[in-house]
Design brief:
This protein has two domains: 7-144, no CATH class; 158-290, Rossmann fold, CATH 3.40.50.2000. Helix 1 (28-45) packs across helix 8 and helix 7 crosses helix 8. The radius of gyration is 20 Å and the shape is elongated. By secondary structure, it is of the alpha/beta class. It has a six-stranded parallel sheet with strand order 10-9-8-11-12-13, sandwiched between helices. It has helices spanning 28-45, 60-64, 85-95, 134-144, 190-203, 221-224, 236-244, 255-264, and strands spanning 7-10, 16-17, 22-23, 48-49, 56-57, 100-103, 117-121, 158-165, 208-213, 229-230, 246-250, 268-271, 287-290. Helix 8 (255-264) links the parallel strand 11 and strand 12. 27% of the residues lie in helices and 16% in strands.
Length: 304
Amino acid sequence: MNMHSTIVYPCLGGKRDLWFARLSGHGLGNAFYSYFHAVVLAEQCGATVVSPPWFSLKIGPLLRGENSKRFYWRMFRPYTGELHGLRKLLALAFRYPKRAVIDVSGASQPPLVRGALNFVSNRKFTFQGLHPYRELIRRRLLGIVNDPVPAHHSWGQGKFVAMHVRLGDFAMIADPKIITTGKTNTRIPMTWYVKLVRVLQERYPDFEICVFSDGKQQELQPLLALGAKLCQSGSDLTDFLTMCAASVVVGSNSTYSRWAVFLGDMPSIWVKKEIDDEQPSDPGTRICYVPIDAAEPVLWPQVE
């Protein structure tokens, strides 16, 4: 590696970044923002990307007894051309004292410092600037996947509805209307999903409704009792790629489902909030915001 070349290191977030592992690092959805913004910036100026530390050591999922431990151990491999192993260690060690810190946080992406080691992060979790690069991001994701890719995988073409129900470390709140103010890391009431299952079954009688969740089967029983199918492959990434293939996605209050919609660019359904949310799909892709009480949800005409 030329010592004067431009290098990009995606900062995936965590209490401590040890270059090859993270302590209490961000989950998949949040980490994707920094990684793919770094990839796009590198693409724009011909820079080299350093393979980031996907492995995240955290104890929360263990203490809560969650099905997914969210370590992401060996889930990814370095993309062709990414610096990894000894070359990564040497590049970071020699250039770290003079690194440039790049925070992608607005409508315009900041330029990289040419000839430097650029630490890139996206703490606002925005898709701004990424939509024109959707195909590049799709290829990149499939190029770093170690976990099984679903058979006959497609982007937004599967004849099923994906419903993401985020539970896990998300808090239950007494007043669900707080969710509409934009408060993060909160659970959407199960009644919201139940009402949507009924409407979707009527609208798409030939589509299976697949529930993707970090919750336990008993917690999801109100949905399963209506005929929805629980989809848990044992891999967060395999489940995520399956969600990306759905014809319709019901999103949770989570960046995990937002990324599925960004990549699949399919119609989607979300809780209606008092503040405007950034739309992960393209402007021409249908999106529906349903009130938190899900009273008489009205959806678009049936997808063929």
